[in-house]
Specification:
- The chain has 551 residues and is α/β, with parallel strands linked by helices.
- Helix content is 53%, strand content 9%.
- It has 20 helices and 8 strands.
- It has a 4-stranded mixed sheet, sandwiched between helices. Strands 5-6-7-8 form a 4-stranded mixed sheet.
- β6, α12 and β7 form a beta-alpha-beta unit.
- α11 runs parallel beside α15 and α17 packs across α20.
Length: 551
């Protein structure tokens, strides 16, 4: 038995070794992507962790049009409501889209337990707009993220999204508040234009409609003719109430809930990049995944320093929410103003999905302008099949650009065209008043509609007169009595001069028909008056009906 046991020992040892190998293989297989992701975001995570040590909320300086850095106190106030240590990053969408990989890396560098939140600066309620991870704390972060993104409409801001997320944390994860999802939180410029147009139309049409109906009623009923001033006054009042009431109802002045950026907010990134270029000719954005390694930066800087003209290269993302509205020429111009040095400015800007486009602008360098801007497409746009976050060929493209600048013949000092005009960050989100351009267009359209309404009303009245027999009979023609004479017919017939009627219904016949109807639709009192009037004479009947019955 002992010998048998000793014989099994080698086999058991081999089996144990195989099991350990399998376990290690599985562990390393799962750990490899995590390690690669951590390494890929290492520089970013280190940069953000240093900022979060100073403040629990960090807002990128690359998105001042949507989330200016001056709005940080509002985010800090919401972070304090979570009840746990909370660290918030508000970044461009191109960076926030990697939240599942970036947040763990930031936590590893910061080394603090708590709730880590990454917000896309665009706001909204879609995928990738918010990511949340918990480390050492227990809060329903995942459910709050799902309910907040499902409940908010597309025009929600990053602060709206974070506020709703915090509300969900405090309500067991339900960020909807048990309310109906709104179609929009703010008034868009298109909606304001519609409000102004509708207000202008109603300002004209409603008073005209009230005036027409009121005057027609007063003229048809003689007892109300003295009240003609009522519809006149009512239409004038409506002409004032409608526009000023609309102005009070639609009093919002901004098309978004984003705080308005200050002039300081709009300069922050330009000043950061200018400070980096004072230390060397190459600057790579610290908030993005590094597009150049430290060794590549050094070799490129050495090549640029060897050129006869000063060249500065900037690698960073451009977005519609930044100070340049996503235009490389505008950013180059502002960077030249901030740095105050002439030369060739190269902007390699990263788009949302990682492709990099190279643009340049010549400020004062003595190079032939046409030859300088005649770039190779591979240098300008890069390889077509690039699907990584950092273009692996960027360093070679920039080195080839340096050779192109070196081979460019001399020319007059460069003076680039004035950069395109971009909208003011405050004015572009400011709504025009309701009583502005679209309102007056609506007034003109309402005037046309009111005229058409008057013509249509006149036509309807004419048709009704023709069909109702209201046309006066010609002299010498007989007036035929209706089968069931009404009070209106009797009044019109009695008030008409007998000289214009050569033949009318006999009073006895009218009285008989009147008596026959007393038991149905007419009241006894009316029948008494009308029979009395008819039994005397038609003019007297008209007087009795007009003065007593219609009083």
């Amino acid at each position: 038995m002992c010998g048998g046991a000793r014989g099994w020992r080698p086999v058991r040892g081999v089996m144990t070794l195989l099991v350990l190998c399998a376990v290690l293989t599985s562990v390393t297989g799962w750990a490899a992507p995590t390690a690669v992701a951590a390494q890929r975001h290492d520089d970013q995570a280190r940069y953000f962790a240093e900022r979060l040590r100073t403040s629990p909320v960090y807002i990128s300086d690359q998105v001042p049009r949507t989330v200016p850095r001056s709005a940080a106190p509002a985010f800090v106030a919401q972070a304090e409501r979570t009840g746990v240590p909370t660290y918030v990053l508000v970044l461009p969408f191109s960076v926030a889209i990697d939240g599942e990989e970036l947040l763990p890396a930031v936590h590893d560098r910061l080394g603090r337990k708590g709730l880590y939140v990454l917000l896309g600066a665009d706001g909204g309620g879609g995928w990738g707009d918010i990511e949340a991870e918990t480390y050492g704390v227990r809060v329903p972060a995942d459910r709050a993220v799902d309910t907040a993104t499902d409940w908010l409409p597309d025009d929600a801001t990053a602060l709206d999204l974070f506020t709703r997320f915090v509300d969900g944390l405090r309500d067991g994860g339900d960020a909807s508040g048990s309310g109906k999802k709104p179609a929009a939180l703010y008034t868009s410029p298109e909606a304001r234009e519609g409000q102004g147009t509708v207000t202008g139309v109603l300002t004209v049409v409603l008073p005209v409609l009230v005036l027409l109906l009121g005057v027609a009623y007063c003229l048809r009923h003689r007892g109300f003719r003295k009240w003609l001033w009522v519809p006149l006054l009512g239409s004038a009042a409506l002409a004032l109430v409608v526009p000023f009431g609309a102005r009070a109802a639609f009093s919002d002045t901004r098309a978004t809930g984003d705080p308005a950026p200050t002039a300081r907010d709009m300069r922050l990134r330009t000043e950061r990049v200018a400070a980096g270029l004072r230390e060397g000719p190459v600057y790579v954005d610290a908030e993005s995944v590094p597009a150049l390694s430290p060794a590549q930066r050094r070799s490129l800087a050495e090549r640029l320093d060897a050129l006869d003209v000063p060249v500065r290269v900037v690698v960073l993302p451009l977005d519609y929410a930044d100070e340049s509205r996503g235009h490389a020429d505008v950013f180059a111009e502002r960077l030249h103003q901030a740095l105050g040095q002439d030369g060739v400015y190269v902007v390699a800007h990263i788009d949302t999905f990682g492709s990099i486009t190279v643009d340049l602008a010549n400020y004062g360098a003595k190079l032939a302008d046409t030859e300088l801007h005649d770039l190779d497409e591979w240098v300008e746009y890069g390889p077509e099949d690039t699907d990584t976050d950092a273009d692996p060929a960027l360093q070679q493209r920039l080195m080839k650009l340096a050779e192109h600048i070196a081979d460019t013949p001399q020319g007059p000092p460069g003076r680039p065209e004035v950069a395109r005009d971009i909208p003011d960050p405050v004015a572009e989100d400011t709504l025009p008043p309701v009583l502005s351009g679209p309102f007056w267009s609506g007034v003109r359209g309402g005037a046309v509609g009111a005229g058409a309404l008057c013509v249509a009303g006149r036509a309807v009245m004419g048709v009704r007169r023709l069909r109702g027999g209201h046309t006066p009979a010609r002299v010498g023609t007989a007036v035929e009595a209706p089968a069931a004479p009404g009070t209106g017919w009797l009044r019109r017939t009695a008030n008409s001069p007998l000289s214009r009627r050569t033949s009318t219904v006999s009073t006895a016949e009218a009285a008989t028909r009147c008596t026959a109807m007393c038991g149905t639709a007419w009241t006894r009192r009316r029948c008494c008056w009308i029979r009395t009037a008819i039994s005397t004479s038609m003019p007297t009947a008209g007087a009795v009906i007009s003065r007593r019955h219609w009083r």
